[in-house]
Predict the 3D structure of the following.
Amino acid sequence: MQGAAVEKIIFDTDPLHFTDDGHAAVMLLRSPEKVQVLGMTIVAGNSWAAEGAGFMWQALYAIHRTDVPLYLGAQAPLVHTRAMAKDEARRWGPLDFMAAFDRPFTTDTGKARVQEGTATDFLIRTIERNPGAVTLFAIGPMTNIAMVLRLRPDLETKIRQIVFMGGNVHVPGNVTRHAELNFWFDPEAAQIVLRSKIPRKVMFGLDICNHAVMTRAMFDEIVSAGTPVTELFKDALGNHYPEFLKKPGATGYIWDCLAAGYLIDPSFVAKSEKLFLDVDTTFSEHYGAVRSLDRQLAPEATPVEVMLDLDVPKFFRMYKDLLTRH
């Protein structure tokens, strides 16, 4: 809408290669008329936080935006561990993806320039200085956000909104039968956020993400632009998940980019619903699953706007345009 204020966001992320986290960064940083990225906070999830900073730095370098400050955040979930994940697989069946738990732990940030101070400090400081004006854009596990809400619960109502990718309401999980990756990696953190008083919560879970399928034809359209960004895209999606260069018939999902697109032009969302949600933190086969909130446990919790479906061609036009610009 013409004249609308630019959205001030903190970009909380768990990058791996140049996948959807990196694509989301490119989309938002190439939309300055819509979004101002105040800084990026890195969290453990797809990779450990330090190596995630290195992956994000690669994306920022490709679009000449290494001026965006990077802050290292939580280097592990609040409770969940590698040993627990292995026990889950032993008890309740194989996990589709172990995320950072399947990678050697590291504190090496590579070539990334990381700011002094922690992600938590940056989040608290920025929310304090901009009360009611900062959107948290959270596309990894919620550990950094949960730590802020526990250190400074008074800031919950001073956050404008949280737009996040994570969870699943009406569809199966993608790590276990019951849980989506970001919520599974740190269920306790996701529970803290969903039970919070943050005024507005917007959820891009598997319910909508499962409708945004990336095909080889879509991959080829983007790669054909031949830019530094699309070369990263070609390597990441061609040689890593979903391995388009090795498996021409493969398909993948766009995930985090839907949440980014919402901050640029939300009109591609075709269906949503508002629910009070919670996360199962019992160590069981349902660990990390989304469930209805018992309002007596969190009487001041705000509802979640759950996105359910989208206009895929409309979204893809925006996605392709932002990724392929010269």
